[in-house]
Amino acid sequence: MVNYRLISLALTNMRRCNIYDGHLHILQQKTGYKLALPLELESPVIGQTLGEVIEQGPGRDFLLGDREVHAFSLSIGFRIARNRALPDAWEYPPSFHEQRSLSERIYRKMNIDTQRLLGHRNPAMTSKYNNDRGLDWNRLTL
Predict the structure, then answer these.
(1) Considering the chain, what is the average pLDDT of its residues?
(2) Spatial contact of 40 and 50, defined as CB atoms under 8 Å apart
(3) Contact (Cβ atoms closer than 8 angstroms) between residue 19 and residue 25
(4) How many whole angstroms separate alpha carbon 82 and alpha carbon 79?
């Protein structure tokens, strides 16, 4: 079960005032971990930088809108959008939180320090995110 309160503190509280020195500054409420993500960090999947994604955001103060969004609403909104975009794509559809695991696998392939990116003190925790949940075939190489 996803802890909606922790997602809320991490994502729904992000504000434009947390962007300075070319970075989005994030303070994780659960651990106190401080992370500054460079705005030029690019996702190869969507072909945009973090800065470009933020520019497209609707909020003038909060990144997700003009007021803080409740985490439960964010999760429900994701589920509605996912089901409309790909109504019959999965037997077990991914949750909002599953994006974090997908991001870890994408950025690991780019040789980015995903332990630092995810704010984990222990590499074993990061390795849990590097799990494709049985989606890919395990190939024997000769």
Answers:
(1) 83
(2) yes
(3) yes
(4) 5
pLDDT at 2: 41
Which token pair is 88? Answer: 């019959």
How sure is the predictor about 37, in pLDDT bands with cuts at 50, 70 and 90?
very high
Confidence of residue 10 (pLDDT cuts 50, 70, 90): low
42 φ, ψ to 5°?
Answer: -110, 140
pLDDT of residue 54: 93
How many angstroms separate the first and last alpha carbons of the chain? 40
Written as one string, the DSSP assignment of 57-122 is -S-SSBTTBSSPPPHHHHHHHHHHHHHHHSTTS-SSPPPTTHHHHHHHHHHHHTT--HHHHHT-SS
